[in-house]
Amino acid sequence: MGVAPSVRERTRPPLPRVPAFTVLSFFLVGYRRTWRAGVFSSFLLPVLTVLGFGVGVGAYVDQGVDGVSYLDWLVPGLIASTALQVALGDSTWPVFSNFQWIKTYYAQSAAPLRVGDILVGHLLYVMFRVLTTIAAFLLVTALFGALRSPWALATLPVAALLGLAVAAPTFAYSAAVDSDSWLALLFRFAVIPMTLFAGVFFPVDGLPEGLRWLAYATPLWHAVDLCRAATLGVAAEWSVAGHLLYLVAWALAGGLLARRAFRRRLVV
User: Fold this and answer.
1) Mean of the pLDDT values across residues 156-177?
2) What are phi and psi of 65, to 5 degrees?
3) Lowest mean pLDDT segment, chosen from 27-31, 49-53, 163-167, 251-255
4) Which 3 state secondary structure label does DSSP give 238?
5) pLDDT tens across 34-84, in order?
6) Neighbouring C-beta atoms of residue 30, cutoff 10 Å
7) Each residue of 192-226: b (16+ CB within 10 Å) or e?
8) CA 85 to CA 167: how far, in whole Å?
9) Burial class, 235, CB count within 10 angstroms (exposed 0-12 / middle 13-18 / buried 19+)
């Protein structure tokens, strides 16, 4: 005896064992339509940055930094700052629009998905974007001969952890604001200062003591130090375990804040 059509129509397909992967697959389907432009920019950005800063500015830094050429010293900072910018870019307007404009999160919450599934699935997509971008960056910089150690591959998990440490609290921020004008302020007063003063372009030792400790407080500096140790094959300035724990703390605290902000918007 067959099942009535009305019953079949009301029956939903079972969710996978990890429902967050369903949300991840949704964003990957969208990325499948735009990946060509993303790949182009992923290769073009490191080429222009390496040529402009590493080769151009590096030509005026005769003695290099810490005994290595300026290009080799700069590349790991650019890797970390690129991971930061990709994570922030995918955690601001996309998250805000999923609440305010296209309301994708509300559609997902109407399905048998929990708030945590929606949040984790989107965070996984952000980490995917960070990893693919940094992989392209590593390939380009390797062609320039700017990677001095096979440990440079360790920058991939470091970049992913930095991306999570930055994206999770940014998800909370983007879910809490009521205007996209607040997102531009985040880039102006957080991303730009971090990129300029967190050890990407010059050692933080040259900063006044107060600014130096502000640089140490940013997640970017910890990722820069780890990436620099990996690409140069030297010891990190601070403890590797300390760096990793600090980034994990940012990710966990940001995840809790993001879950709270998502629940406030999605659960009636």
Assistant:
1) 96
2) -135, 130
3) 49-53
4) coil
5) 777 666 666 677 677 777 776 766 666 767 777 788 888 989 999 999 999
6) 13
7) eebbebbbbbbebeebeeeebebbeebbbbbbbbb
8) 10
9) exposed
pLDDT in tens, 195-213: 889 999 889 988 888 889 9
Residue pair 80/159 in contact by the 8 Å Cβ criterion = yes
* 35 DSSP β-pair partners: none
Whole-number Cα distances in Å, 184 to 58, 93, 187, 192, 238: 31, 9, 5, 11, 32
Identity of residue 7: V
φ, ψ dihedrals at 68, nearest 5°: -125, 165
Cβ atoms < 10 Å from Cβ of 179: 9
- How many Å apart are CA 265 and CA 268, to the nearest integer? 8
Distance, C-alpha 1 to centroid of its chain = 53
Has residue 1 got a pLDDT over 80? Answer: no
The backbone torsions φ and ψ at residue 18, rounded to the nearest 5 degrees and listed phi first, read: -115, 95
Q: Closest Cα partner for 71 from 14, 12, 141, 11?
A: 141
